[in-house]
């Protein structure tokens, strides 16, 4: 116990301040009288700094939660758009098949004929 006393006296300059530590009771904490002690008033800037850092930490936490919510919503939208793009491209592939094009031409009576011979390559001499 004696070594603790010596340890505290290194940080506390006067015997008056050391007496303040011994005289603190639970009632002083509840009443708020602890904030009028010189030992606490000297440390008040540090307590204010800690409170400020706590507010910053809490604010940062809420901001990150909001950003994570936005990221989740954007990923959901991206997945839906990807499904829509795949569906649209498969419909376009189906509509551009030769048999489907032929059906549409006949339905509109465009007087177009299907090729019976394969296409030929033209050779051009330079």
Task: Considering the chains and any ligands shown, give keywords for the structure.
6 helices; mainly alpha; about 130 residues
The succession of helices and strands, N to C, reads HHHHHH
Total beta strand runs:
0
C-alpha Rg, in Å?
Answer: 41 Å
How much of the sequence lies in strands comes to under 5%
The number of helices is 6
Q: Give the overall silhouette.
A: rod-shaped
Unreliable residue runs:
none
Please tell me about this protein's structure:
This protein is an all-alpha fold. It is built from six helices and no strands. It has helices spanning 2-11, 15-22, 26-31, 38-42, 44-95, 98-108. The longest helix has 52 residues, at 44-95. It is rod-shaped.
Please render the helix and strand layout as text.
Elements: H1 2-11, H2 15-22, H3 26-31, H4 38-42, H5 44-95, H6 98-108
Short summary:
The chain is mainly alpha-helical and 126 residues long. It has helices spanning 2-11, 15-22, 26-31, 38-42, 44-95, 98-108.
